[in-house]
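Friendly challenge for the regulars: who can give me the structure tokens for this chain first? No prize, just bragging rights.
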Amino acid sequence: MTSDASKLPEQVLKVPVETRGALSSGDRFAAGLRGFGPLGIFAVLVILLSGNYPVAPLGAILVLVWVRLSRTPWREIGYVRPKSWPVTVAVGIAFGIAFKFLMKAIVMPLLGADPINQAYHYLAGNRAALPGAVYAMIVGAGFGEETVFRGYMFERFGKLFGSGVWAKTLIVLLTAILFGLAHYPVQGLAGAEQATIVGVVYGTIMAVTGRIWMLMCAHAAFDLTALAMIYWNLESDVAHLVFK
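First reply, four minutes later:
Bragging rights claimed.
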């Protein structure tokens, strides 16, 4: 009886030591993902370069995996439950539609952009391509791009630069530039210009509110409005509403 009791402290202490070792290993991995060492930088590059390829929304899915593995609070990427889902969705849709008309009818003509979006003109009257295009606009752009650029990259730059006014201004500009560059290969200069402006506006809203759901709805509505203009061959008409 005495012999068994003498072994008990060693057996009891052995498990917590191993547990602490396992936890510290997990903590180190999570800290590495949150930091800006090799692992953290590698994560940023993989997420940014993945984007929506080969399937949408791969980049956003990787962001969600990163949040879990790095033990980052969801609110840090703007995933905050809104006070009212219907209001958030309605405001986002209305804002996205109005913003697209503003860009198409006034801003882009002032920048000398072609009224016709040549990169996506193949969608004009193309009913067969609509399902894929709608999926890309809602899932790839609305959910995917907002999660990466206004969610993940805001969190990363926020940890790097801080949360002051000048830091947030810099973050808005940097994420907008990255967003514009991401659109250049497919849409050219006009597409990059539009995306940069959109990035500044959406980024400013994100910097002020810290919430991403309305922006997702606005982004999807913005792109779906653009799709409707293209599909029904209304691009030129809208582009000349103000400037004939």
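The CA atoms of residues 96 and 218 lie 4 Å apart. Confidence is low (pLDDT under 50) at residues 1-20. Your move, everyone else.
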